[in-house]
Every structure is written in C-alpha cells, then in structure tokens.
Amino acid sequence: MQHRSITRWIGRSLGLILAAVVVVAGVVGFLRWRESARDDDAEVAVDEEAPSISEASVRTLDESYDAEGSLVYQAAVDVSSPVSGTVLQIASPGDLPSPGDVIARVDDTAVVWLDGELPAWRSLTIGDEGTDVEQLETALVALGFDDFDVTVDEEYTWATSQMVEAWQESIGVEPTGDVELGTVVFAAGNTRIASTSVAVGDAADGVLLSVGTDERVVTFDAAPADAVHLDVGTAVAVSLPDGGDTTAIVESIDEGADTWSVTAAVDATIELPERDTLDVDVSWDVTIAADVVTIPSSGLLRLDDGTYVVDVVDDDGSLDRRVVSTGASVGTRTVVESGLAPGDQIIVL
After folding, report:
1. What is the DSSP letter of 37?
2. Do β-strands 77-80 and 301-302 pair in parallel, antiparallel, or remain unpaired?
3. Entry's Gene3D superfamilies (predicted)?
C-alpha cells in the first residue's frame, strides 16, 4: 500500500511539472512568435519588457473632466430710484431683507421689497387688471393687510386701494392708494442686497442698489468636447479652496463657438468673502461604456492592415491569436466588442 501511494504521488508531481513546462514553453514560444509578428505585420516596435497575463473582464468605463470655476451669488438686478432727491436710507451689501422691508428711502418715497416672481413693470391704480395686480394683492395679504374684503384676483379695485393705503401708512409714506413704478421690488426666495451704488446723503440719480438672492452658483467655461457631456440637471463636483467639497446641479449651458459657459446651482450654504466670489475646481465623470468586456490596452497588437489582435492563453498553456473588434478606450483599458469573453486570459506587455 505504501509503495502504491509513493508511486501515485510521484505521478501527480510529474504531471504538475510537465504542465508548468508546457506553460513556460508556450510563453517562450509566444515571445518568439509575437516578435516575429511585430517584425512582419505590426506598425509598432517590439517591447522588450517581459509579458504578463491579464484577464478580460466586464467593467464600466468612466471618463473624468475638469475645469476652473467661480462660486458666486446668483446674478442680481439693479434697482433705480423712482424719484430724484436725497438718499435718506439705504440697505447694506449682504443684508437679507424680509418681505415688506424698506430697502431704500429717497426723500419721502420708500422702495420696498415684496415677495413675487413677476418684476414690476408699471404703476398700478384702480381699474388696472393683470397678473401683476394679483401678485401685489397676494404679497400684501401675506403681510397681514387682509381686513379690507379684498378678493385676490387680477382686478385693482377700491378695496385693493384701501389695502394699499394701509400698507403705505405702515411704512411711513403718503397713503395714495396707488403704487408708483419703482417703489416696489418683487423678488422670490431669500433676497440679498448684492451691492449699493449710493450712500446716505447722496443725490439719488440712477441705480440705488443691486438685489439678488442668497443662492449660490458655480460658473465655469469648458471646451465643447468636454461640456458636450453635460446636460441641465447633471451633477458636478466642486472642490473648495479650504479643501472641502460640495455638489452643484447644472442649470444652464451657453454654447459658444470655442467655449461653453455653464452655470450650476449649489445647494449647500457656503460663506463667501466680501468680494463675493471663490475660485473653485469643478469636475464631472461621464460613463463612456457600461458593463462591457474590457482588457488592458497594452494587450492589443495592431497589424499593418488596421486589424487588432490579442494573444489568448488557452487552458493547456498554448497561445491562440484572435482578431478582435475594439471600442472606446479610457485610461489604460479598451473595450472589446467581439472576439473575447469575460475570463479569457491574454498576454499583455
């Protein structure tokens, strides 16, 4: 029995040794074969480095893009004085007024911020109709001026004028019941005073201040070949100067001939310096190919006729040269559309 076990052990060992010899011989033969193939058919020079074996595998290939950008507050609009006179009150840059707050006062005329989407474009009085009338009534009712049996609609009625008079008295101006153009600034969301053009005591002649929101956006330019992978709604990564990071969502893309300008909204509250801008780095990843068979690009050999081949190591250690059809390349890997299966072992240099 012991003699049979020793004999069986010797037989198995010899089998393993012979298998190893076959693999080594196959690789040595491959080196001579591929070098000859390169001399005869390939366009590239022989790589003197020793080959290794890699495996065809299913992967998702992503490409990364980046750009330099600026983190700023949302664009602001200028507010001009409705009358000529002397500036008696002016909000400060960075202020966050609430609906109904006076943001400027020129002589006895006040400029007030009210909540609303539609910019004021005309004076309003009894008999006027339109969505701007409804917006005014909605804003004043929200401030508590709802004791005048006003029907919130698109008609400026006597009841509307009574409500306006009560509101005007509350802010210290003459209660005319009419709303003059320039005395109300409508803006939605969290309004922020972006900048001022005058100080208390100055003559009011033109722009008083700029009003925006406290929403932050990232703006950046990118080459069309990079920006073409962006769409409205795409998330981009934003790296901040302090080492932190956040995410922004693309809101708009302005397609130029040589450069595309992109604006993306930032959800996080990030403190900006007094100059209201931060230099940031923007990056985004794009899936070039999902769940595809890929191999290291160094495993491909291009022949003179443009055909790509790979050298596959079979189970017995022999080499099988196969023609393959290739797809996109990202980094060090290339998509193989046909000719290989996941798990195939190939020679790479």
Report:
1. H
2. unpaired
3. 2.40.420.20, PGBD-like superfamily/PGBD
How far apart CA 207 and CA 236 sit, in angstroms, is 36
pLDDT tens digits, one per residue of 248-269: 999 999 999 899 999 999 977 7
Which CATH code fits 29-61+289-348? 2.40.420.20
Q: Which of 225, 232, 216, 221 is nearest to 262 (CA)?
A: 221
The segment(s) of the chain belonging to CATH 1.10.101.10 are 77-213
65-73+215-288 is a CATH 1.10.3080.10 domain: no
CA distance 15 to 81: 97
| DSSP run (H or E) holding 226 | helix 224-227
Residue-wise pLDDT for 63-117, tens only, equals 899 999 999 888 788 999 999 999 999 999 889 899 999 999 999 999 999 999 9
C-alpha to C-alpha distance for 192 and 195, rounded to whole angstroms:
9
Residue 285 pairs with which residues in a beta bridge? 64
**Total count of residues recorded for the chain:** 349
> What's the pLDDT tens digit per position in 38-67?
444 444 333 445 689 999 999 999 989 999
CATH 2.40.420.20 domain span(s) along the chain: 29-61+289-348
- Name the strands in the sheet holding 85-90, side by side, starting at the edge strand that comes first in the sequence: 184-187, 109-115, 102-106, 85-90, 203-204
Distance (Å, whole) CA 163 – CA 129 = 16
DSSP 36: H
CATH number of 77-213: 1.10.101.10
- Residue 275 binned pLDDT confidence (cut-offs 50, 70, 90): low
pTM of the predicted protein model:
0.58
